[in-house]
């Protein structure tokens, strides 16, 4: 079994950014479980599945083959043979992923792939339920969070830098709504594992957060 570092936390806490830095420093593979759910979400959107139609979500998700490849050390998310890295970071995909990832059948579809990667490699894996559900025996567990205001501010700046029009208050409302949904879903809700350390990044730089976690994982 590989050495596993599990990083959980709410949307916008910086999990992916930090996980990539930790993986690079430790020379581990970075596994972005959220990207897998986003790939499924993209497929559902392409097939015009409604947010409240869980039956169709399961039907179409079963037709979506999601896999992970690594090219020059970079994760590539493959959906039915297509590299979708550049297509899964929109707000529309984010909302669909948040809803569809709560469907038990969809979580089961991706669970074994995620665990297989962790068994066979040293990995840093981030998501909502890594330490509590996917990798409960991970040697290192972190719950990374930040205030809703700070997470909304980060997302707002990110979208503005891309040249997208956006509204801060709407972004903040969406984050709060997503926190509520992720924390209260019946299957694998977002919560801090009992043996995870809490890292609040609200007033920390990216480098400070990464160093805190790297030091913990020595």
Structure overview:
The protein is of the alpha/beta class. It has 2 domains: 1-28 and 122-218, 3-Layer(aba) Sandwich (Rossmann fold), CATH 3.40.50; 34-121, P-loop containing nucleotide triphosphate hydrolases (Rossmann fold), CATH 3.40.50.300. Helix content is 50%, strand content 17%. The protein is built from 9 helices and 8 strands. The protein has helices at 15-26, 33-46, 54-61, 91-100, 104-120, 130-134, 148-161, 168-184, 206-216, and strands spanning 4-8, 29-32, 66-71, 74-79, 82-83, 123-127, 140-145, 197-200. The strands form 2 sheets. A 5-stranded parallel β-sheet has the order 2-6-1-7-8, with helices on both faces. A 3-stranded antiparallel β-sheet has the order 3-4-5. A hairpin with a 2-residue loop joins strand 4 (74-79) and strand 5 (82-83). Helix 1 packs across helix 9 and helix 7 (148-161) packs across helix 8 (168-184). The longest helix has 17 residues, at 104-120. The chain is globular. The model has no long low-confidence stretch (mean pLDDT 93).
Give a short overview.
The protein is an alpha/beta fold and 218 residues long.
Question: Total helix count?
Answer: 9
- Report the end-to-end length measured between terminal Cα atoms: 18 Å
Roughly what is the average pLDDT, rounded to an integer?
93
CATH domain fold name of the largest domain? Rossmann fold
What is the count of structural domains?
2
CATH architecture heading of the largest domain: 3-Layer(aba) Sandwich
Q: Which sequence of SSEs, written as H and E, runs from N to C? A: EHEHHEEEHHEHEHHEH
Strand content: 15-25%
Arrangement of strands in the largest sheet? 2-6-1-7-8
Low-confidence stretches: none
Helix content: 40-55%
CATH class of the largest domain: Alpha Beta
Shape: globular
For the report, how would you describe the main beta sheet?
Answer: 5 strands, parallel
In CATH, the homologous superfamily of the largest domain goes by the name P-loop containing nucleotide triphosphate hydrolases
User: Given the helix and strand composition, which structural class is it?
Assistant: alpha/beta
**Rg, please?**
16 Å
